[in-house]
């Protein structure tokens, strides 16, 4: 049976990456408004990730960065963003492709996205996006990234 030409999972994945790009562009232009700040987790093994060797050694698979108090040189392109962050008084530039993202969380408004890829020949087909957020929720002051609690909905069950 032929696959549908409408790859809803891939389209949703790209739309969520576009949303993150739009948020980061606004922050690059205007700064972080109010209490907003971000936890961004990415796969350091992704071919397009550029970072200092000592950071890659310390985070060989995955790294979570916090965009909050001090960041510099935030630039956003269609497929990646770059940012300089301070690691122990050492400013380090990072180049992070949107395809390398695993989570994006803004705990100030309890907004979070989780991107998952499953091992397989066609990663775009297996992309899943989990959006957990409640814009009306009160901030409890806990800035730790969420440990889950949301349900990941696999779009595979509706594919033919």
Outline:
The chain has helices at 8-30, 53-58; strands spanning 38-43, 62-67, 72-76, 80-86, 91-97, 101-106, 111-116, 128-133.
Word description of this protein:
- By secondary structure, the protein is α+β, with helices and mostly antiparallel strands.
- It is 18% helix and 31% strand.
- It contains two helices and eight strands.
- The protein has helices at 8-30, 53-58; strands spanning 38-43, 62-67, 72-76, 80-86, 91-97, 101-106, 111-116, 128-133.
- The strands form two sheets. Strands 2-1-6-7-8 form a five-stranded antiparallel β-sheet, with helices on one face. The chain has a three-stranded antiparallel β-sheet with strand order 3-4-5, with helices on one face.
- A hairpin with a 4-residue loop joins strand 6 (101-106) and strand 7 (111-116).
């Amino acid at each position: 049976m032929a696959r549908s030409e409408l790859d809803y999972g891939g389209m949703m994945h790209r739309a969520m990456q576009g949303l993150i790009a739009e948020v980061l562009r606004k922050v690059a232009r205007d700064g972080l408004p109010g209490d907003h700040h971000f936890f961004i987790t990415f796969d350091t093994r992704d071919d397009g990730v550029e970072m200092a060797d000592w950071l890659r050694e310390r985070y060989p698979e995955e790294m979570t960065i916090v965009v909050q108090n001090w960041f510099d040189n935030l630039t956003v392109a269609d497929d990646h963003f770059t940012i300089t962050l301070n690691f122990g008084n050492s400013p380090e530039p990072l180049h992070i492709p949107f395809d390398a993202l695993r989570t994006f969380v803004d705990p100030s408004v309890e907004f979070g996205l989780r991107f998952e890829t499953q091992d397989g020949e066609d990663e775009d087909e297996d992309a899943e996006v989990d959006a957990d957020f409640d814009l009306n929720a009160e901030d409890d002051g806990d800035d730790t990234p969420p440990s889950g609690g949301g349900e990941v909905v696999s779009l595979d069950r509706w594919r033919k």
